[in-house]
Write a structure and sequence with these properties.
Layout (H helix, E strand, L loop, with lengths): L9 H27 L4 H8 L3 H4 L1 H24 L1 H21 L3 H11 L5 H12 L2 H32 L3 H21 L14 H24 L4 H23 L7 H4 L2 H29 L2 H4 L7 H29 L2 H20 L4 H27 L7 H28 L16 H20 L35
Length: 499
Amino acid sequence: MSEAPQPTTAAEKQSSARVLPALILAMLSFSVVQTAVVPILPSLAKELDVSTSNITWLMTANLLSAAVLTPLLGRFGDLRGRKPMLLISLAGLVAGSALAVGTHSFTWLVVARVLQGAGGGVMPLAISIVRDELPKQKVTGGVAAISASMGVGSGLGLVATGLLLEHWNYKSIFWMGLAFGLIAIALVALRVPSDPVTDKEGGADPLGALALAGWLSALLVAVSQGNHWGWTSTKTLGLFAVAAVVALVWGIIETKVAHPLVDLKMMSRPAVAFTNLAGLLIGFGMYGSFMVISNFSQTPEKLAHYGFTATVLHAGVMLLPSAIGSMVAAPLGAMLIARRGPRLPLVLGGVLGAVAMAYLALRHSHEGDIYTASAIFGLGIGLAFAAMPAFINGAVPVEQSGIANGMNSVLRTVGGAIGTAVMTAILTGDTMKLPIKIPVLLPTLDAYKHAFWATAVVCIVAGAVPFLIRTAKPVAAAPGAPGGSTPQDSSTQLVKTDA
């Protein structure tokens, strides 16, 4: 049963005002950096003189690094303190940005993207710090704001890329990441106190960490490169087989060691397992939709008889409503969680995502259609992101908060890689025959319709998953009772879930 919210003291308000902006900026720093290169991959291939297939390693390397390092940093945060690990995570992002600014080599740029992937640890660590540092009635709102910042930053990153390329070269994008990262480090160092919650009885699990890194690496490389290598090629099938075998070995290790990196009993709780499934599907929808909408907007209308011949900046602006929608979703999601529990916002997130993509499958002739769908989709993503940590934090003890939220972030990343690969396969599987030769193949309009419908189906399934989780509404003492809330005190709080 949840405790009744208590009046917020001046000290608690000051703590919230100091800590939360630093954590939100840290989250924005990573999400902006992660997606900023997406719309410029074709131009980067020309700039760096590499093939179209090889340039995708700039995304693959970053997704892979984030997937591997996120749970490790989250777990070490549980063991050794969240603030030091958060600073290390941001330091990796800054180091990667600095290297990207200083190099003209494609190989070193891939290394830079690997270093930037360390920023993936920001989300689970920031959520754990909010749980530690903010007053109880502020936790749900704080977690929702940080989670929704992922969608906000992703949308803003696409717009910022277009703006920077209008006036400077691609290096300016990495300068932006460097500036964001340095400011975030300074704010975290100055404003975030050393956290009191550490799992002092826990221990390291090097074999588990290596096995986790092994199967995630094999899976993500196979998924990311499957379109280029061929889904039935020896390399792709071999990596899928390696991923399956190493994942099985990892599971055995985690059940045998005294202090596992990931407590599989905790991960198997319905509130955690089904929330992670929803995270995988939402990640698929978000990354897949961003890629498809951006490509559709930039398609030359005179050649394809669809699209808007948009520049990178124009395409980013079309996706800007998604960032605004995610921003609106943070307080809305916190309010819904406090009143109805996390199920409703997670269901709404999937439903709104499906509505947006179905809308685009049916209506896509005017720019207003893109703006409308983008806003609806962003609102849905923001609600879903706000709800998932509430489900997980209500089902795990505070000393496992970092690793539990870290694994949820990993599955969102894996879902994003799968979504991007599937959307690419759909678009490249049905291309147009044009009277003139152009450097890239243009998908047919039907291919885009199929991609929109596929994303809509995935989102609606994500919206159905929460019904598999039993939840209890937050319970407060009666007004006027000792410790009870008053009509003026309706602050949000985490919901306990039946795990």
